[in-house]
What we know:
single chain; Rossmann fold
Amino acid sequence: MANIVMVAGEASGDLLGSRVIDTLRRRIPAAKFAGIGGPRMIAAGFESWFPQERLAVRGFVEVLRHLRGILALRRELARRILANRPQLFLGIDSPEFNLGLERRLKTAGIRTAHMVSPQVWAWRSGRVRSIGQSVSQLLVLFPFEEALYRQAGIGVTYVGHPLADEIPDRIDREAMRAELRLPGRAKVITVLPGSRQSEIEMMADVFIETAKLIARTSPDVRFLVPLVTRETRGLFEEAIYRCNAHELPLTLLFGHARDALAACDVALATSGTVTLEAALSHRPMVIAYRVAPLSATIARWLVRVPHIGLPNILCGEAVAPEFLQDDATPENLAQAVANLLADEPVRRRIEHRFERLHHELRRDAAERAADALMPLLAPGAA
Length: 382
């Protein structure tokens, strides 16, 4: 019986992990999966030893604030894994946590793999060598990443992105609006403040104030706000109260981000995996991002790409407007959203570009990932 330990530190990793679990279980019905995961992985039969939220911290300064607890968690997790000696450890994203853990486990003779490349093409390219020392197999989601690691002599497989497999080519927007009981003529904006509590704390007030500005000039507007957990929903509700925004035509959803994207005209999103989900739903969007000022300063020193939003990085151009730090003001965001709402030809061009991106990333990722992992689960594998 195969015992597989996995660590997924946030909502996007939880989705990836759940698909890999489903696919591997079809091939190895008796396999057991445990480690750190979220609700989707747990629903797939995963035993989560620790709450996933303990790893959901972003930004350089924010990580430092939680560093002692994170390092203690990694030591405790390593002890448990070494005591259980699983056939495979699979880290999903969360590279700052997982790669150090993977290196320790690989040194101890446990087979290790990692899914989702750190953004070495954006910053800290020197990590490529340490990744090779940490994992036996790297599973990457974007096509340009495979050649980068092959050149470094690292075992790598391009699997495509699971979201591209899951999201359909054609979405019935009118049917979804009817299901969500939205007025047929309404302008619908989906607000995506993030899946982490730290993101909600940083972005909620800005997005709510943006919504207030838009509502003043567009009386037929409706806002949808999908939130991943009870904790993030509670934080957003506190922000609504704090911003005196009870009269906003705003609907909070528990999850259902994909439905909200299917129904909307434009999305307003915190930079992260959710922007890729919006692109794969072929939705025009405005991207915003704020972190602590010191984190932003460090990022400006280190980051080497012209865009921060995944859709823009993958398309190689600024398809979606981006507003960072002090530029991410309610006034700037409201104007950018209003511009998209008012310009249907631009929206159509964006939709067509995102359709092409969708086809580029659709590769049946879970099956490809399982194909790459199966040799590591074979008896006597190195």
